[in-house]
Amino acid sequence: PGGVVAVIAPHAGHRYSGRTAGHAFRAVQGRSVDLVVIIAPMHRYHPGVILTSAHPAYGTPLGTVEIDHPALEQLEQLLNEAGAPTLTRVAYDEEHALEIELPFLQRALSGPFQLLPLMLRSQEPQPAQALAAALSKLLAGRNALLVASTDLSHFYPQAVAARLDKEMLSRIAAFAPEKIFAAEHGGWGYACGASAVSAVLWAARELGGSQVVLLDYSTSADETGDPTSVVGYGAAAVIKTV
């Protein structure tokens, strides 16, 4: 027996991105979880390093998703004890990368769940490692699911995007978060949520994840028919085997 510890899904809001995201969430179809941790990038500038919502809940057309504030406070305490960047609560932000995953979860999971929403601004490994270490302690023994929200390369011609995305996806599939940053900094592959993916992989490894399975790949050209400037999308799952 085994199970899915985490999924990685894109966050652009059109049909082919949604199709690729659907492959990620199909991996947890029918599962019941108590807590979902979504880690996403924050695309707009914010002085905070590790961000969360100042609101009590998120609302979608499918219903309300409550934030698990006791879990959020426990995470904050774990970060503080480790000397890591503290949580910064933001309100009325325009970030979509986190909330766009919620309807997929509401459809895929078999019952209600609480949410731990997190966003990372930095594309450096240290905050992602610190967050992952705290999450692995927080989630040990809990019925939880990790979700990383990211798109891949942005606005390259289709052939170039395919090369860059293949490299980034190969590093994700290798379960090598440190190599994700190397690709990002070296220009060999890109992901706007590189820190989010890396944090989820580090945490998933501590929680028993042993393998990353790539599930789907597409680009915006599949939707627009224009290969001159595309965005890449990938889906993956982290599997726990016994």
Topology at a glance:
Layout lengths: L1 E8 L5 H12 L8 E7 L8 E4 L3 E4 L2 E4 L2 H13 L5 E4 L11 H7 L5 E7 L4 H15 L4 E6 L4 E3 L1 H16 L3 H10 L7 H13 L4 E9 L1 H4 L5 E12 L1
Helix pairs in contact: 2-4, 4-7, 5-6, 6-7
Question: What does this protein structure show overall?
Answer:
By secondary structure, the protein is of the alpha/beta class. 37% of the residues lie in helices and 28% in strands. It is built from 8 helices and 11 strands. The chain has helices at 15-26, 69-81, 102-108, 125-139, 158-173, 177-186, 194-206, 221-224; strands at 2-9, 35-41, 50-53, 57-60, 63-66, 87-90, 114-120, 144-149, 154-156, 211-219, 230-241. The strands form 2 sheets. Strands 1, 2, 3, 6, 7, 8, 9, 10 and 11 form a 9-stranded mixed sheet that branches. A two-stranded antiparallel sheet has the order 4-5. A hairpin with a 2-residue loop joins strand 4 (57-60) and strand 5 (63-66). The chain is globular and about 45 Å long.
